[in-house]
Amino acid sequence: MAAAEELGEDREETMTFLGWAESWYRDLLVYQATHRSDDLVNLDMLAEIERQAATINLDRLHSSMQKVISAGAGIQRNLNRRMILEDLLFTVVAER
To answer: What does the DSSP 8-state code read for residue 78?
Structure first.
């Protein structure tokens, strides 16, 4: 809840975080499908991407990615940022 509150204070910061989260899940999906780093955005985090891609379930990965996309859409519609982030963070953590 504290992380959601802090991230939700500034709309631009919230959107930056969601953009990063979307790129992270995209990288995990790409790496899990190809086992190649050529198309990764977060190449500096390759070791962590390899580790997470090897352990995360594909359905959970898709679910988390969809949750991030939905959160961004909700914030674009000016919904309550803190509530959207709480829902996102609780869901993603619970799925781990």
So the answer is: T
All residues at 6 or more sequence positions from 26 whose CB lies less than 8 Å from its CB, including other chains: 41, 65
Distance in angstroms (rounded) separating the CA atoms of residues 16 and 68: 12
Average pLDDT over residues 17-32: 95
| pLDDT in the model for residue 96 | 63
Confidence of residue 78 (pLDDT cuts 50, 70, 90): very high
Integer Cα distance of 75 and 92 in angstroms: 18
- At 44-62, the pLDDT tens digits run 999 999 999 999 989 999 9
Number of domains the chain contains: 1
Q: How far apart are CA 49 and CA 24, in angstroms?
A: 8
Can you give the residue range of the structural domain that contains 74? 2-95
| Contact (Cβ atoms closer than 8 angstroms) between residue 92 and residue 62 | no
